[in-house]
Amino acid sequence: MKLFTRQRVLILSALLFSTASYAQNNTNAPLPYGAIPTERQLKWHETEMYCIIHFTPTTFQNKEWGYGDADPSIFNPTKFNALQIVGAAKSGGFKGIVYVAKHHDGFALWPTKTAAYNISESPWKAGKGDMVREFQLAAKQEGMKFGIYCSPWDRNNPNYGTPAYLDIYRNQLRELYSNYGDLFMSWHDGANGGDGYYGGKKEKRKVDQATYYDWLNTWAITRKLQPGASIFSDIGLDVRWVGNEKGMSPETSWSTIDLKGNGDRPAMPGFLDDSNLGSGTRNGKQWIPFEGDVSLRPGWFYHADQNDQVKTVEELFNIYCHSVGHGGALDLGLSPTPEGILYQKDVNTLAEFGKLLKQVFAHNLATEAKISASNIRKGPYGTNNLTDADRYSYWATDDNVHQASVQLDFKKPARFSMIQLRENIKLGQRIDSIGVDIFKNGHWTLLAQATSIGANRIIRLAHAETASKMRIRVYAPVSIALSEIGLYLEPAIKTTAKLKTGNEYNKTSWSVTGIAQSKIADAKKAIDNNDTTFFETKTNNHLDIDFGKQIDFSAVGYLPAQDKSAEGAIEKYELLISNDGKKWDVVAEGEFSNIKANPILQRISLTSKVSARYLRLSAKQTVSKENNFLRIAEIEVYR
């Protein structure tokens, strides 16, 4: 009995020593610096990549944004397979999907009780289907996280723009957030009001973007029903938009930000100063990291004429390095065909991208190095933490050491082309900048520099380097807490050239007409085969082109100016043809949806082939505060 008691004392003493040791180390941990992420934001950071899926009646209309007037009878995907779509995303290394349960057209992809315009009115599964459920179950089967986007703008609902619609929208969120399991994302955007069907009224409705949705109270539904879901919008509570639909942030991109309202009004989705969405704010008051959203194709919805414009693996990896590799996340748009599956080229590209990611990160060359540091904080904060693949173990310096370096010495020279760094973001975004040197020809030579390390920072070198010694100099306003160092050698990526369709007419003999002689040279920039130049006018709302002879064509392409401003991009258009330049016939009219955020080549497909010598592209509405402000980078005409 005495022996047993003695054993208990020894065990208890050991436990007390261990606990005291842990407490001492924990006490010696650096204090958090500035804004820090919540638990849900940490889980979002760890997800890194997910896909958003756009599949609604708009797909069957070959449109980018549905007007809200599509007959539900057109929605009948005969080969629908959620597992094929979700499985393809998983093969690409993505860890979650966000399904668009309702887009701006207002068609609910679940049998909602809130509005008649929903999937139960379609012939798919005899009106008994639930596509949100199909994707939720597919995600669960594939071990993927699941999120939902329900558009606040509803171009079908007759109550849109009134207080009654807000109740409808909130009830839709309650249905979605109560019946489809745990969600990792509550996804929203800033699309607000405009032309719509609106129950047959066919009119334009404006809302006060800053107040109509009462976002803080609307998002309270997410917090109550899905407390683990990160809220995304152009400026969400947890995740912000990067400010473009190319998926890429600037070189410097902080996870902290100071929100800026517009004038004296508060910052709210659809109504804010978005000048710092990409860059964030150093020492910003809130931790709201960015999501880089981009579609695998030019548009968010499937269009058969974009089958040859699927992004290449090389393009995807570059986007990855400028989104995930800049401390944010990558949200890639997938676009099922009208049959309800992904086009095979999309599937193949995703699989090749996933294969590349595995190859790139298969072996961390830093694990082969002996790592030393100029300063190490007392406790479990040594350099061994830098290569243990743990985001939250870290090398730390003493409180009064704000500049320090780590050195990697290799037994044999290491060849690498990519450097990866992480901070322990549980302690905030502490590091201001870093410099990377290699020991070459008997002295240290600067190799790379970077700012805004945060959750993940990838530095791609212009070409592979070989070094036996490497040094990373770190600068911060407080003690350093660096979590990981990675050195990788990218495998050669097969470059796939992007080709034109082959159906474009040669433009060398074209001319512009109906414009002042002094403006002709400028107007020709719209047909000079140079995407970087553009025609700009504040006096005309159209451009007339003379082909020199009568030609047959079936489609026309319009590329807005490709600089950083969307000003002057055509939102609503009219396409006219003529054989004498005097009498004009309208052959198409419509809208270029989402062109402000995604200024890509827009294709106007005609209902049937036409024959004409003259073409007029007329802007009925542009992205502009001024009347008649129009900019055209290029016009294409297709046989």
UniProtKB/TrEMBL annotation:
Coiled coil regions in record: none
The protein's name: alpha-L-fucosidase
Enzyme class: hydrolase
EC number: 3.2.1.51
Domain F5/8 type C residues, every copy: 492-639
Superkingdom of this protein's organism: Bacteria
An individual GO BP term: glycoside catabolic process
